[in-house]
Specification:
The complex is a heterotrimer.
Chain A lengths: L7 H23 L2 H26 L7 H21 L5 H5 L15 H24 L5 H21 L1 H4 L5 E2 L3 E2 L2 E2 L3 H27 L1 H11 L1 H7 L3 H27 L1 E2 L6 H14 L4 H21 L1 H18 L3 H10 L2 H11 L5
Helix pairs in contact in A: 1-8, 2-8, 2-11, 2-12, 2-13, 3-5, 3-11, 5-11, 8-9, 8-11, 9-10, 9-11, 12-13, 12-15, 13-14
Chain B lengths: L5 E12 L2 E12 L3 E5 L6 H9 L6 E6 L3 E2 L5 H7 L1 E4 L11 H8 L6 H6 L4 H13 L15 H15 L3 E5 L7 H14 L4 E5 L3 H7 L2 E6 L2 E6 L1 H6 L1 H8 L14
Parallel strand pairs in B: 3-8, 3-9, 6-7, 7-8
Antiparallel strand pairs in B: 1-2, 1-4, 4-5, 9-10
Helix pairs in contact in B: 3-6, 5-6
Chain C lengths: L1 H31 L6 H22 L8 H23 L8 H23 L15 E5 L2 E4 H23 L1 H11 L1 H6 L4 H23 L9 H16 L4 H21 L2 H18 L14
Helix pairs in contact in C: 1-5, 1-8, 1-9, 1-10, 2-3, 2-4, 2-8, 2-9, 3-8, 5-6, 6-8, 9-10, 10-11
The chains are: A mainly alpha, B alpha/beta, C mainly alpha.
């Protein structure tokens, strides 16, 4: 059917993807080491945004708890890096807190593959468990959102409170090497950038596969009318749980990459404000469009690093105002705005009629 | 039950909302391939009994047996739907941001687990089925439209199309012809007869003209109870039915004029 | 024994503050299906209003009158928060009716701006409000159990506010209109009730009560621009637990969370205590997913 034919519009989109991928791979040749590291961090954020879009934009469930999933991934990687930096001795903060032996749950993190597996599995599992106890009982909408926010608060207090295991407020830092390579050297940084770019593309391809599959259509159906989907014979709770877990897993992956780029993870990174900022990336880029979510994350963080250093006060005002403006006036985000501006009015109505707002 | 051809059997079903009994000890037996009309004045509990059958409302007592021995009152909505009971609601409820085609695609009878929808490929025979359905409901030109942009009548048809692709053994329809033109109403009636050759249907309807034209067997409910069951002629001739519909003093008036 | 009583009392005091905060939230959520994340900042505004009242007394009135500033600061913080809440409703919230998730995000933006505004005006560090001398000391219940007057006063303040709210909602004409809108908006509008006015009035009252909560919080310790964020999520948990639509759910939810929270934190430690409370709430929702009291509807979604 028409699904398989290449319309001019599809060709433009493909060209767009190709340009974006080329830009990603050429960036190391153009940017300074500092800028490249910054970009790498933003690309990691873009991975969170993709996952968040999957659960919010496509499934209609707003999670304000993605900072936690991001943080859990980051801590898993941080634990590995910390053990490697300590070189067989007890990590410094444990020493200060009076621990004499490495806790049992820290031991396996000496293995890099184990740390990576945990960085994905722990967030995904936590999401699955929370989803199981909420979606099954049809706790949704704002009720669910508030619970995710409570999850943030308790996780942050728990990580601060258990100083001897987590490093408390300071978190985990003082890393030296990753797999034997010095973590601060430009070569390693460049390598980590490549890895991040590849993971981002992989995450994009995965999400695109998910939303284009029939699974993705069911997710949108659940967003449109959960009960209706139920009376057709789908079990929305299972779909919501899986989508939430995948989304959390992606946030965990992003967290692992973040630690590698930034060299520190502390509870403040997963607190309420960063968690809700993640939602803003998606809202600004355009929820329900993957490319919008990823671009939103990169652009907003770029703006943040440009503004907030020189005008930290004005930045918070700006951020607040942005929330209000985007939610009230631009519910479809920048991508929605772009479509409005790009397509002439007559074609636009036709376009909206035919494809809806959730392609690309 | 002993009768092999009975596909759905409601036994003494009672539903309470905060002490108010919406349905009291209702009995209903539906045979395979039967087209049954459920009528009664407002508040008689017609919609509630459909809600019980499809699992939206849990009865406080009584049983609903599907294909002989499966008690579905303990099952969840999606499990009941999987067993083969489809429901069309009073207001058209389609998925507005999905295209017409996608609406039909996900409604189509298939394995509905996460795993299989993840890897589901559009096979040619599925595409043909959806296409045939599109032609039947007259939406083949609008297959790529967002369903939210359809007119009220088109949405009704889309929902009927979705239900047919679902291939349930029992279809529960709540006022399917509401808001349809006379021509569309007739088309729906003919369609129902066609469906009833293989599947069983329960229709809740207020449009007496429609009921008279297409009903073979009618169940009248009143105040949550079964009032009368029989052919349209039997029901029309019944004094109690006339009383319920038109008040005590006008027994002689023909029930069928009322559109309640 | 003594310690248990003190902990129970602390829990009750915590619960009463939560109740004051959650009251406004429950009403606006029930009435307009709007989640107001800036509610915490209205608490902060109430607290700063108290701070300003104190400073004005200090600067312009004889020292002998200073002790009475607090009596005045209660209505002042109510009025200031009431006005700002009303402004917020007419300028922004009314565009967000029936879109709870969007309202949550937009009001969070407002919260961010209000916090930054407070930081610009009053500075980032916390400021202390000197409580009146007549609230120093405590009531000696038995050996080893002294209930501080400040906490007793807060509980009393909450009871008075609650009674006033109850009378307003269940006994006044305005309250009857409010309940009518809450139960059936369209029908109420058909009967000639100006739902717009009811909405903004209710929202403003909820905000004003948050202001009183802020005033009460000045008795508990220093205040700062992010004062509200400490309480807002707990207050929302009260709404989730208590359900929407009746005052009694909010009361039980608030006292429940206050007491169990304080108890858990005493038995374990502050961080584990919070985790346990959260687990209890999730467990409770398995039993009653819609909270303690819930209104039933027959609609599909």
């Amino acid at each position: 059917m028409q699904l398989r034919t290449l319309t001019p519009q599809k060709i433009y989109i493909l060209i767009g993807y190709a340009v974006a991928a080329t830009a990603l791979f050429c960036a190391p040749m153009v940017l300074s080491d500092f800028r490249l590291n910054l970009l790498a961090k933003f690309l990691a954020f873009a991975i969170v945004a993709l996952g968040l879009d999957l659960i919010w934009g496509y499934t209609g469930i707003l999670s304000l708890g993605h900072g936690v999933f991001f943080g859990l991934g980051a801590y898993a990687m941080g634990m590995y890096l910390k053990l490697e930096a300590s070189g067989g001795r007890l990590p410094d903060f444990m020493d200060w807190s009076g621990l004499s032996a490495l806790p049992w749950f820290w031991k396996p993190f000496e293995s890099f593959p184990f740390a990576i597996a945990m960085g994905i599995l722990i967030p995904a599992l936590l999401a699955l468990i929370l989803g199981f106890f909420t979606f099954r009982n049809r706790i949704r909408g704002v009720y669910f959102t508030i619970l995710t926010q409570a999850l943030v608060i308790i996780t942050v207090t728990l990580f601060i409170g258990q100083q001897k295991f987590t490093g408390g407020t300071n978190g985990l830092t003082g890393f030296t090497t990753v797999l034997g390579h010095s973590i601060g050297s430009p070569d390693t940084k460049r390598m980590l950038y490549w890895v991040t770019a590849i993971v981002l593309i992989a995450a994009f391809v995965l999400c695109r596969f998910l939303v284009k599959s029939r699974f993705g259509k069911v997710l949108r159906a659940i967003r449109d009318g959960e009960n209706r989907a139920r009376f057709i014979g789908y079990n929305p709770a299972v779909y919501q749980m899986i989508a939430f877990a995948i989304s959390a897993g992606l946030a965990g992956v992003a967290g692992m990459l973040f630690v590698l780029h930034v060299g520190i993870i502390s509870p403040s990174t997963m607190a309420i404000v960063p968690s809700i900022e993640m939602v803003l990336w998606v809202a600004i880029g355009g929820r329900g469009t993957l490319i919008g979510a990823a671009l939103g994350a990169v652009l907003l963080n770029y703006a943040k690093s440009a503004f907030s250093e020189s005008y930290p006060d004005a930045w918070l005002f700006f951020l607040g105002a942005l929330f209000v403006i985007v939610v009230v006036f631009l519910p479809k985000g920048a991508v929605g705005l772009f479509r409005k501006w790009k397509l002439p009015k007559r074609r636009r109505t036709e376009h909206e009629q035919q494809v809806g707002h959730s392609t690309v | 039950m002993s009768n092999k051809s009975v596909i759905l059997q409601c036994e003494a079903v009672t539903v309470e909302f905060d002490g108010f009994k919406a349905v009291q000890g209702m009995h209903l037996a539906l045979e395979k391939g039967e087209l049954r009309f459920l009528i009664g004045p407002n508040g008689a509990g017609k919609t509630t009994i459909l809600d019980v059958i499809c699992g939206k409302v849990k009865p406080s007592s009584g049983k609903v047996l599907f294909s002989g021995d499966v008690d579905i009152t303990r099952k969840k909505e999606h499990q009941i739907a999987e067993l083969g009971i489809g429901r069309k609601f009073q207001t058209p409820s389609i998925f507005p941001t999905l295209t017409v085609f996608e609406n039909l695609e996900i409604a189509m009878k298939q394995n509905r687990s996460v795993f299989s929808t993840l890897w589901a490929k559009m096979r040619t025979e599925d595409e043909d089925r959806i296409h045939n359905q599109l032609v039947m409901i007259g939406l083949e030109d609008k297959a790529q439209w967002r369903a939210g942009g359809l007119s009220h009548g088109e949405k009704q048809w889309l929902e009927i199309g979705m239900m047919l692709l679902q291939e349930p053994e029992i279809l529960l329809l709540d006022e399917p012809v509401a808001g349809m033109t006379d021509k569309e109403t007739d088309k729906t009636g003919e369609l129902l007869h066609e469906i009833a050759r293989q599947q069983s249907i329960v229709v809740v309807e207020h449009d007496m003209e429609f009921v008279r034209n297409f009903a073979s067997k009618v169940t009248v409910m009143h105040e949550g109870k079964l009032l009368k069951e029989g052919t349209m002629d039997e029901v029309q001739g019944d004094d109690r039915v006339a009383e319920v519909y038109l008040g005590k003093k006008r027994r002689d008036v023909d029930v069928s004029r009322s559109t309640a | 024994m003594e310690i248990t009583i003190i902990q129970l009392f602390n829990g009750l005091s915590m619960g009463s503050i939560l109740l004051l905060i959650a009251l406004g939230l429950a009403v606006t959520f029930g009435l307009m299906n709007v989640i107001n994340m800036a509610h915490g900042e209205l608490i902060m505004i109430g607290a700063y209003a108290t701070y300003i009242t104190q400073n004005l007394f200090n600067d312009y009135l004889p020292a002998s009158l200073f002790n009475w500033y607090f009596v005045l600061s209660i209505p002042v913080s109510f009025m200031v928060a009431f006005l700002i809440g009303w402004l917020l409703e007419v300028s922004l919230i009314r565009f967000l009716y029936g879109r709870p998730l969007d309202s949550l995000l937009a009001t969070w933006g407002i919260a961010l701006m209000l916090q930054q505004l407070a930081r610009t005006i009053f500075g980032a560090p916390n400021v202390a409000v000197k409580s009146p001398t007549w609230l120093d000391g405590g009531f000696r219940l038995m050996d080893g159990v002294v209930l501080p007057y400040k906490r007793l006063f807060i509980i009393l303040l909450v009871i008075v506010t609650l009674v006033a709210m109850f009378l307003y909602i269940y006994r006044s004409h305005a309250g009857r209109r409010m309940r009518a809108v809450m139960q059936n908006r369209d029908m109420a509008a058909c009967l000639g009730i100006s739902t717009r006015r009811v909405d903004s009035m209710t929202f403003a009252i909820g905000s004003g009560v948050a202001g009183i909560a802020g005033c009460a919080l000045t008795l508990m310790g220093p205040i700062g621009p992010s004062l509200g964020t400490y309480y807002i999520v707990d207050a929302f948990m009260v709404v989730v637990l208590g359900g929407v639509g009746k005052l009694v759910g909010t009361i039980v939810g608030a006292v429940g969370i206050g007491v169990t929270g304080t108890m858990f934190e005493y038995w374990t430690n502050a961080s584990l205590g919070k985790v346990l409370v959260f687990l209890c709430i999730v467990a409770f929702l398995q039993w009653k997913p819609k909270g303690l009291v819930a209104m039933k509807t027959r609609s599909l979604d």
